[in-house]
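Quality-control log, excerpt.
Job 1 of 2 completed; input and output follow.
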Amino acid sequence: MESRSNGIELEHVSKSYGSVLALNDLSFDIPVGGRFALLGPNGAGKSTTLKLLIGSLRAETGSVKILGAAPESKESKAVVGYLPEDALPYRMLSVRENLEYIAALRGVEDVKGRTDFLLDELDLRHYERSNVGRLSRGNTQKLAIALAIVHTPKVLLLDEPLNYLDIPTQEKVIAMLDRMEGTHLVSTHIMAIAHRLTDSVVMISKGMFLWEGTIDELRKKGSPEEPIESVVARMMAGAS
């Protein structure tokens, strides 16, 4: 798996929910080590794409690969970390129990050491014995991020990772993710988040591929004084 040139590949992928076509012949790939934002308006198919990549959904047509393996394979599941939007860790377990349980399932060698590191890194030490059901939404999000990265995944899939976090915590999470190696795909509809966490963009609209390139290339599609959000909005409006 390590020799594959692409961390993520989608080829001619379509997915429907009943009569609603969520993804329509979607193709893109992300090289190993690439940091890409999956950018699009609400309802563009971003969350569906991530669910296909973790193997919780199956495409009706096309091919989905993680480091050359099918998402539902043991090889893929061992190297992927996933943060869903509105993640809900085990509510009846404590913060520490959640981390130690998932770390053990993920085959982390030093479960206690990794748990202690993440408790301190994300300022969760004060809450380590608290049941998740009693946490604030922000602390629940911090725990969900810790669970996604507890096994130091080679491919990290994040759905709106900065939701519910205050500004100091956002900065801490951004710095932590910046230090991590691997292939990152961040689903968001907020350009500022894409700019802070990634250097390239895959843009989709109505489940279809719209554009791919670096954030600098995206910026150049507008005039020097035009905000990049305006460029993105114009491109998406043109696809509607």
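Job 2 of 2 completed; input and output follow.
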Amino acid sequence: MLKIGLAAFTFLIFGGIGAAYAFGLFSNAESNAATAPKSVYEFTMKNIDGKDVKLKNYKGKVALVVNTASKCGNTPQYEGLQNLYNKYKDQNFVVLGFPANNFNGQEPGTEKEIKEFCTLKYNVTFPMFSKLSVKGADQHPLYAYLTSKETFSGNKGDVSWNFEKFLVDRNGKVIARFAPKTKPESPEIVAAIENALK
């Protein structure tokens, strides 16, 4: 009887601990899922002048999110991005530029230098933000969200190079992703933007 009692007692104690631990794991998973961002517009970013900007300010707009660089073979795409912005901005479209130095050190400048370069060389007027990391151990949470499979089924891992483009709908959901070499004014990007604006 004593052995049975001890066995039952042991089961109750350790079974209870196991159940509590498992419950804790499930609770943490549920908590993490509940707090995980569900939209680009949940993020607050620093703009190129170092001021906080809540991306929810762009809610209701279709956005093209691009990681930029000043010393890249794709840098002339700034012109195409500005042309897109000029063409569609009155239809609630915006380009959001995020300088990044992840690829061969092709964005070495300060925010002030980047702003001057974009403004003077390409007449950029769309919103530009402070430098961030788009991949690696120091990846910014925005880019962790953008590149996640849970965010968009068409995601294929990390950003591969400068000027990769994410199209975001009016609610901040990623609806398309375009390779760095795909030019901003390419038929596929234009068609995707126009379809999202309908």
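Post-run check on job 2. Residues 6-14, 16-32 have pLDDT under 50 and may be disordered.
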